[in-house]
Automatic annotation (TrEMBL):
It holds the Pfam family TspO_MBR. It comes from the Bacteria. This is Tryptophan-rich sensory protein. The keyword Transmembrane helix applies. It comes from Pseudogemmobacter faecipullorum.
Length: 150
């Protein structure tokens, strides 16, 4: 596939899959009934943040395939993406705070590993992943706080 058609496809696949998972696994009465930490953001924050992050993740994935071709970057990109797409079904679907933590911790490691590898090879991809690492760091803290409070 040509590079110029692959970029929108990467973005569409990442954003589309994320949106579909978000639609299928929405917060419901279980989540509403949880004790929340003081830093829990309002629900309206999540969709716009994840949409922007998924766009950045899609661009970084495209760069991994079409600009760098680095096998380790590809591996960490695919690994974090798989774990990312498992988190909502674990958290909202299975209603398991501990399973969600067991997914988000290695996801954070894969994101950090991608970013560190990208710093050596493709600084643009590293910059694209920086907000993602920051958000998933916050999400990990939030997931852990929810676990401790409930």
């Amino acid at each position: 596939m040509s590079e110029k058609y692959a970029l929108p496809l990467f973005i569409l696949l990442v954003v589309g899959t994320g949106a579909l998972i978000g639609f299928l696994f929405q917060p419901g009465p279980w989540y509403a009934g949880l004790s929340k930490p003081w830093f829990n953001p309002p629900g309206a924050v999540f969709a716009p943040v994840w949409t922007l992050l998924y766009i950045l993740i899609g661009i970084a994935g495209w760069r991994s395939w079409y600009r760098t071709g680095d096998r380790r970057m590809k591996f960490f990109w695919l690994a974090q993406m798989g774990l990312n797409f498992l988190w909502s079904p674990a958290f909202f679907g299975a209603e398991s705070l501990v399973l969600a933590l067991a997914i988000i911790l290695p996801m954070w490691i894969c994101i950090a590993a991608f970013l560190l590898r990208a710093l050596q090879i493709d600084r643009i991809s590293a910059w694209l992943f920086l907000p993602y690492l920051a958000w998933v760091s916050f999400a990990t803290l939030l997931n852990a706080a929810l676990y401790l409070l409930n």
